[in-house]
Design brief:
The complex is a heterodimer of chains A (273) and B (364).
Chain A (H helix, E strand, L loop, with lengths): L1 H7 L2 H21 L2 E2 L2 E2 L2 H8 L1 H33 L3 H12 L6 H12 L4 H8 L13 H24 L4 H9 L4 H30 L2 H6 L6 H11 L3 H29 L4
Antiparallel strand pairs in A: 1-2
Helix pairs in contact in A: 4-8, 4-10, 6-8, 8-10, 9-10, 10-13, 12-13
Chain B lengths: L1 H24 L23 E7 L4 H15 L1 E7 L2 H9 L7 E5 H9 L19 H4 L9 E11 L23 E4 L6 H11 L7 H11 L3 E5 L2 H10 L4 E5 L3 H7 L4 E3 L6 E9 L6 H12 L1 H9 L14 H4 L6 H5 L6 H18 L3
Parallel strand pairs in B: 1-2, 1-3, 5-6
Antiparallel strand pairs in B: 3-9, 4-7, 4-8, 4-9
Helix pairs in contact in B: 3-4, 4-14, 6-7
Classes of the chains: A mainly alpha (273), B alpha/beta (364).
Chain lengths: 273, 364
């Protein structure tokens, strides 16, 4: 009896999600299979047969992949360090790590313009120190987009990793050490495998987030297009909602595939504790 | 322990969702929903009629000097719906609001006309039309609204970074501008004008699509970024990322704020006219009032006020400005008669094709 009552509490949330998320998504996906009342795959075939569209898709996935990797490389040591601290210090450093999430992505992107630009901070330092003669061309390239995205998504990885790492039993580390493992072996055999659930969760969030990011590529990106800006062009400026829906559906499918793949990987790595 | 883990994951997902939501909506923020206007506790004898006006922005000057007197004279309450051309056109198209008067650039107005969203106007009720320059009277045909302001696409540059004087559209191809140039994207209002300019520079007397694309492709390595919004141009210009590019005269004051030496030139082949038109939306219950508002906007008095405040260049030829007042404006029979004007209908019919070509051949 009591349990049933609790389920009713989910109703408002479920109703909201069904009405404003599930149904529109179903509608969007459904509409891509019909052209002039006929059931067809033409929308997808048209997209996938076209080298230019596929290239945009590949560029986007490449940017997302590099962003995810870079976040892992940079974020893992930070997360590990934070997870070892006393609760007070941990709270403080976590708050610092989350801080970038609290600023608008537009503001964040604009600050990167100031740093990465031709006359930006980075270039004026490098030129001033005599390390380079000509300013580096970073702004308005995919590199700038990746830098912006890493800045944007790094906190997600840190949060999800810290959450998992602080639950690693310190006795396991001690046990490994007492049995003669070097610190590196402890990391490789104990800490890393136990962190994988957090790593997977964080990676999914970053990969999907990078793939669908719109503001950062618009502000920091140059002539090369990513899928989100391409979708925007189709929907808003060309009013071609059908193509836009096709692209959206393809993005949803890729997202689901990535989540599925990563979850599978995490099962593979799962260590029985 | 498992439980704690779950809570942690849930927390991080929540954070993630917040972050993602943050980047998605940043672009659409502050396009208020004025349809929910607060009921004014007016005790006047008759309730004012509500007139919904969809426009780019509502500055204090316009609100006070243009709208307030209109509201008073006709017992109207003007409600604004604010946003860029594309967003507002979309809103009208999705019928999510009951807009009466629609301000759009000519090019988006044509899209609205093609989508059957625009009511035919009755010119007899808009007597001020007679005072307009010919180009502004009926840019999209006699059935549709006039241009209440005119703007000119020319070239802006920073003379400190560009040594040779710029006088012609040809000068964009000057090697000195390499890596200092920005160009409008094809889907912006001015994008198709550059296509026409490129065709002109290629030596063709009539518009030649292939030559235009070839010419723009030639220019591509020089371009730092294709801009989507005028504000992007202003930012890049102020930061020194670019030193020149096609620019609309009406926004010169924004450029000067960042780079006081900035120069605007009308190329010798002629600048391109960019006109903003005003129309009545199909199905409006307040057509007469809407036409009154259009007439109001065209009147010599209002046009002069807006010109002196440097908000809009006048299309009413009765407006007389001193040289100082006219500075930075697209003003005067002389300047206006030299403007080149693209056939908006032709542009709209070809835009999809051009965008596709432009994506594939140029912006790589």
């Amino acid at each position: 009896m009591k349990k049933r009552y609790v389920y009713w509490l989910m109703l408002p949330g479920l109703l909201f999600l069904t009405l404003f998320m599930l149904l529109p998504i179903i509608h969007t996906i459904g509409s891509t299979f019909f052209q002039e009342g006929q059931f067809t795959f033409e929308g997808y075939l048209h997209f996938l047969r076209d080298r230019y569209y596929v290239d945009i898709l590949l560029t986007t996935m490449q940017v997302s992949l590099v962003t995810t990797m870079a976040c892992i490389v940079v974020g893992f040591p930070v997360a590990y360090h934070i997870s070892m601290l006393s609760p007070r210090k941990k709270g403080f450093l976590l708050a610092l790590a989350i801080f970038p999430l609290l600023t608008s992505s537009v503001v964040r992107s604009f600050s990167w313009i100031i740093i990465l630009g031709k006359n930006g901070l980075l270039n004026s330092w490098l030129v001033g120190l005599g390390l380079i003669d000509q300013p580096l061309e970073i702004l308005y390239t995919p590199t700038a987009v990746m830098i912006g995205l890493i800045h944007l998504f790094l906190p997600l990885l840190i949060i999800s990793l810290v959450g998992v790492m602080e639950n690693i039993d310190p006795d396991l580390v001690k046990a490994a050490e007492s049995l003669g493992s070097s610190r590196f072996t402890v990391f490789r055999k104990v800490i890393f495998p136990l962190s994988i659930p957090g790593l997977i969760l964080g990676s999914i969030l970053i990969f999907v987030g990078s793939m669908t990011a719109y503001t950062t590529p618009t502000v920091l990106g140059g002539k090369k297009r990513v899928i989100a800006t391409f979708l925007y062009q189709n929907a808003i400026t060309l009013n071609d909602w059908n193509s836009a829906s096709v692209i959206a559906t393809i993005m949803i499918v890729i997202t689901l595939l990535v989540i599925g793949l990563m979850t599978k990987m995490s099962h593979k790595f799962r260590v029985k504790g | 322990m498992i439980r704690k883990k779950m809570i942690n994951s849930a927390l991080s997902i929540t954070f993630a969702a917040l972050a993602l939501a943050g980047c998605g909506t940043a672009n659409q923020a502050n396009t208020g929903t004025p349809t929910a206007s607060a009921p004014s506790s007016s005790t006047a004898s008759s309730e004012p009629t509500e007139l919904v006006v969809s426009t780019w922005g509502n500055d204090d000057f316009t609100a006070k000097e243009v709208i307030a007197p209109f509201e008073k004279k006709f017992n109207v309450k003007v409600v604004f719906e604010i946003g860029n051309n594309a967003d507002r056109l979309n809103k009208v198209q999705q019928k999510t609001s009951n807009v009466d008067v629609l301000f759009l650039s000519d090019y988006f107005t044509q899209q609205a006309i093609d989508a059957d969203l625009i009511e035919k106007i009755d010119r007899a009720y808009i007597p001020n039309l007679d005072q307009l320059y010919d180009i502004a009277k009926a840019p999209l045909g006699a059935d549709y609204g006039p241009a209440f302001t005119i703007n000119q696409l020319g070239i802006a540059y920073n003379p400190k970074l560009v040594k040779t004087e710029i006088t012609s559209w040809k000068d964009l191809w000057n090697p000195e501008l390499a890596k200092k140039l920005t160009m409008p994207g094809i889907t912006t209002t001015t994008g198709p004008m550059l296509l026409d300019a490129a065709s002109l520079v290629s030596g063709s007397s009539t518009f030649n699509e292939d030559q235009a694309f070839a010419k723009l492709k030639e220019l591509n390595p020089s371009v730092v970024k294709y801009y989507g919004k005028t504000s992007d141009f202003v930012t890049m210009f102020a930061q020194g990322e670019i030193a020149a590019g096609p620019f609309m005269q009406g926004f010169l004051k924004d450029l000067l704020a960042g780079v006081p030496d900035a120069k605007f030139v009308t190329p010798e082949e002629g600048g391109y006219a960019v006109m903003n038109t005003v129309n009545v939306v199909k199905g409006s219950k307040n057509k007469e009032l809407a036409e009154e508002l259009i007439n109001w906007y065209l009147s010599k008095e209002i046009q002069e006020k807006l010109a002196k405040a440097k908000i809009n260049s006048p299309t009413n030829k009765e407006v007389k400005l001193t040289e100082e007042e006219a500075e930075g404006l697209t003003y005067g029979a002389d300047m206006i008669s030299k403007l080149r004007y693209l056939d908006v209908k032709y542009v709209n019919e070809n835009l999809k094709k051009w965008t596709d070509r432009w994506n594939r051949e140029i912006a790589q």
